[in-house]
Design a protein that fits this description.
By secondary structure, this protein is mainly alpha-helical. 70% of the residues lie in helices and 0% in strands. The protein contains four helices and no strands.
């Protein structure tokens, strides 16, 4: 009785990621996520110290930024093992893109919205007739909050655009379109 032995050869496809672009993306997204996480954590602590309610955007962007940092750590682990798959990157980037876009829209509403927007309080100046240290401190605190909201908005734009770019780059890596 003759036995037939079937041998299968499994070949792993190697994906060639553009190192400079990938490293640039990682650095910018770590910076953007960390800045957004820090700003919204700071705004949350201010809201808590003043015993005010929190808009939902504060814990939402803290969570979204933390998820982005976790995604980057996972990517770094896969990069170190040379197992970074474009499908995983596209899926993760798409999910995070949607989360960051929703945060960007709500931040823009909070910052530039129709009623009670943060930006409407940013141009206020203290009374120049009787400026004292308390008015100066209030103005500085108000100015600091305005700068924080604007910086968060700017870094959310950067993060959203870079996530879109990562989806395109991962698609190109999958098709092996890089020169």
């Amino acid at each position: 009785m003759a036995t037939t032995e079937i041998i299968t050869v499994q070949r792993r496809r190697k994906y060639h990621w553009p190192e400079a672009q990938l490293n640039f993306w990682l650095v910018i997204m770590i910076i953007a996520s960390s800045v957004v996480l820090g700003i919204f954590a700071y705004l949350t602590s201010i809201q808590n110290s003043l015993r005010l309610g929190q808009p939902w955007i504060l814990p939402y962007m803290i969570t979204t930024s933390a998820l982005m940092i976790i995604f980057i750590i996972i990517m770094l682990g896969l990069i170190s093992q040379q197992q970074l798959l474009p499908g995983v990157v596209v899926l993760g980037s798409f999910i995070l893109f949607v989360l960051w876009l929703a945060g960007l829209i709500e931040t823009s509403i909070q910052l530039y919205g129709p009623t009670g927007a943060v930006n409407s309080y940013c141009g206020s100046r203290p009374n120049t007739d009787a400026i004292n240290s308390q008015q100066t401190a209030v103005w500085l605190a108000n100015s600091s909050l305005c700068v924080d909201w604007r910086a968060a908005f700017a870094f959310e734009i950067v993060g959203t655009v870079f996530l879109l770019w990562m989806m395109v780059m991962a698609y190109q890596v999958n098709r092996d379109d890089f020169d």
